Predict the 3D structure of the following.
Amino acid sequence: MTLPQKRKPPTPTSHEPDLTKEWSDDHLLCHCTNTSKGTILSHMAKCHRDPDRIADKTGASTKCGTCRAYLEELCAIAPQPLPAKKLKKCLLIIALIIACIGLALLLKGIA
Ligand code: FES
C-alpha cells in the first residue's frame, strides 16, 4: 500500500514577486494546514496583519514553514483596512459638511 504523497507548495523566489496577488481566494496557501488565501484574507480583515498573529489564528506556516514567505508577502501587499479611528474622523467631517450645506440652504431660504 502506498500512501498519498503530500504536495509541497513551491518556494517563492525573487523571480516571482507578488505571486500571491494572482491566486484565487480558494488557492491553498498552506498545504500542511489546508489554509487558503481566502482564510488568510478574512483574518486580515479582522485587523490581524501580523504574520505571527495570523499563524496563531489559522495554523498557517506553523508546520514545515514552506509557506511562511507567501504568508508574509500576502500581509505586505494586501490592501490596508481603514483604521476605526480614521473612519470615525472621516464620518465626522462628512457630517459637518452636510450640516454646513443644510444650514446654508436654510439661511438662503429664510433670506
Ligand atoms: S505549507 Fe507547511 S506549514 Fe504551510
